[in-house]
Amino acid sequence: MATTTDKKKYIETIGRRKTATARVRITPAAKASYVINDLALETYFPTAELQKIVTDPFKVADKAYAVKGSGIHSQAEAVRHGISRGLVKEDESDKTKLKSEGFLKRDPRSKERRKFGLKKARKAPQWSKR
Question: What would the 3-class secondary structure string for the chain be?
């Protein structure tokens, strides 16, 4: 007879940056693996820089991510934010190290909206005297 303690426990957090949102699940495992939107880490984030952003805070557990919105770099940083939050949930002593690296801060910067009468958010049409 199976009990509820036999089930794998996981920590679920949300990481955000700009308009990207990452739902991160961290589960204990013997070998680390990264699955992002049903793709491997190397497939979803092809450059080494983006892979480093994702793997910086945590390199030991099995992970499953769901990322949507924004660009690929923002998505990588959103995943990093979610992983960092999960690590703090698991062990509060990691908070000072992650906070000093800036992994726990949600970067709120996003694109400014276009205003009426302007070409872009702040770019005005060319002025002519006559």
Answer: CCCHHHCCCCEEEEEEECCEEEEEEEECCCCCEEEECCEEHHHHCCCHHHHHHHHCCCCCCEEEEEEECCCHHHHHHHHHHHHHHHHHHHCHHHHHHHHHHCCCCCECCCCCCCCCCCCCCCCCCCCCCC
For residue range 50-90, what is the model confidence (pLDDT) as tens digits?
A: 988 888 876 544 556 677 778 888 888 888 888 888 888 88
The C-alpha atoms of residue 104 and residue 58 are separated, in whole angstroms, by: 13
pTM of the model: 0.74
Burial tier of 103 (Cβ tally within 10 Å: 0-12, 13-18, 19+): buried
Looking at residues 3-8, what average pLDDT do you find?
Answer: 52
Q: Closest Cα to residue 106, out of 24, 10, 11, 14?
A: 14
Q: Which two tokens stand for residue 65?
A: 């991510």
Number of residues that make up the chain: 130
